[in-house]
Automatic annotation (TrEMBL):
Lineage summary: Bacteria, Pseudomonadati, Pseudomonadota, Gammaproteobacteria, Alteromonadales
Descriptive protein name: Prepilin-type N-terminal cleavage/methylation domain-containing protein
Record-linked SUPFAM superfamilies: Pili subunits
Stretches assigned to coiled coil: none
NCBIfam families according to UniProt: IV_pilin_GFxxxE (TIGR02532)
């Protein structure tokens, strides 16, 4: 007799229900607020760094521009005819003018006013490297200028126009073949007075530095009795200058140019004062220049 299979009951096992996870609204808001605070802080730091770099660059540009102007002005003033500096200005433009020195000579004999001769005996015009200067009819010679009028005004007879230059060799001043190294320079007329140091200065033009419209321009011109205030033209030397110009060259705390008159003890001294500015940045430059040559 066949046995019947035994069927055991199947036990049902409970499957655990997985609990769903996620962010609550409060958590999301908290994260957003934290991220906002971090981003604001980072942007503030970045903005500060950018502003710091910008300010540094602005200052460096102003310093570079001011240094160039002061160096150029100082170098040119140092090579000017003594006491040739004059300053003029109004509320729109201020100019400093001087006469660049072409050559500094020593004379042995000087013709004076009302004398028959107008010929000066001058030591040969050459330097230690045998570079020769030959005065021409476009040049003037200045002797013992104690005021700027002596340089610019021919009626004071401190300056005379060159007529010719010759020597005792082949007659050409450029060949340096004079037996006693003394050449003869002829002038329109005699001079008003001699120089205690026997100095004679040759020149043919003027140079002006003018500040207007927050910029400085360089001008060149012939030697004239009246100083010119240039309101246009010239070569741009510097920008971003914020000096407040006075109504005249002698009135105004921020005038860019100032001159101390000469005396018998010293030459005139010239000072330059510039305030460079861009936005909130300011850089000030001030320097005094003394012309080393003496009358």
């Amino acid at each position: 007799m066949a046995s019947l299979p035994i069927i055991l009951p199947v036990q049902e096992q409970a499957v655990p229900v997985q609990k769903q996870t996620g962010f609550t609204l409060i958590e999301l808001i908290t994260v957003i607020v934290v991220l906002g605070i971090v981003s604001v802080s980072i942007s503030g730091i970045f903005r500060s760094v950018v502003e710091s770099v910008t300010v540094t660059n602005e200052r460096e540009n102003l310093v570079r521009e001011g240094s160039f102007l002061m160096e150029r002005l100082t170098r040119e003033l140092s090579n000017a005819v003594p006491n040739s500096v004059r300053i003029s200005g109004n509320s729109s433009v201020h100019c400093i003018e001087f006469v660049p020195l072409k050559w500094n000579a020593i004379y042995l004999q000087l013709p004076l006013e009302n004398e028959v001769s107008t010929i000066a005996d001058v030591a040969e015009l050459s330097d230690i490297q045998s570079n020769v200067f030959v005065p021409t009819t476009s040049d003037i010679a200045v002797v013992f200028p104690t005021q700027h009028q002596d340089v610019y005004d021919p009626s004071r007879s401190k300056q005379q126009a060159v007529v010719s230059c010759t020597d005792d060799g082949d007659g050409d001043c450029s060949t340096l073949d004079d037996s006693d190294s003394v050449i003869q320079v002829s002038f329109d007329d005699g001079f008003a007075t001699t120089s205690p140091s026997r100095r004679m200065y040759f020149a043919d033009s003027t140079t002006s530095f003018c500040m207007r419209n927050n910029s400085v321009y360089r001008h060149q011109d012939s030697i004239n009795v009246t100083q010119t205030l240039y309101t246009s033209g010239g070569t741009l030397m510097a920008q971003n200058i914020v000096n407040q110009l006075g109504a005249s060259a002698s009135v105004g705390e921020q005038n860019p140019f100032n001159s101390v008159p000469a005396s018998f003890q010293r030459n005139a001294a010239t000072s330059a004062f510039f305030i460079f500015g861009r936005e909130e940045e300011r850089v000030t430059f001030m320097k005094e220049v003394q012309i080393p040559n003496v009358p």
